Prior knowledge:
By secondary structure, the protein is an alpha+beta fold. The chain has four helices and eight strands; from the N terminus they run E-E-E-E-H-E-E-E-E-H-H-H. The termini are far apart.
Amino acid sequence: TVAVISGQTGKLxxxxxxxxxxxxxxxxxxxxxxxxxxxxxxxxxxxLKGFFQNAKANKIESRGTRYQYCDFLVKVGTVTMGPxxxxxxxxxxxxxxxxxxxxxxxxxxxxxSFMGNHAPGIPSVFGTxxxxxxxxxxxxxxxxxxxxxxxxQQQVPVAGIR
Length: 162
């Protein structure tokens, strides 16, 4: 969704949903905060269509399977844009820990056990959180970063095979 304010350049606002929080809707503003609202936020956005322009062509989602292994929650999903698959997402959570930086080394060791050298580096959201409690909004920020990275990869022209 793109916000258009009289005569000003539009700013992006990403409206996101997460099956772990079915009664919530997340609105992430470009370079800004994450608003958590109830699920009817989408209806409000439709009523404000004079101020917001919907960019449906940019719909991107991750769907997959949720696994639980002891205290770890692992979600593996296929990222799709429209009808085509664009990538794979892997979300890992260590359920007993609410301070993300306290368990990062444990998460890395666990991810390396099944992802090998494809395990990611520390997420940027950890740098801003330090010793504060990890929230669902932090997960949505990471999904937004992943989706934007995938969108940018799709814009790169592919060289022809000779």
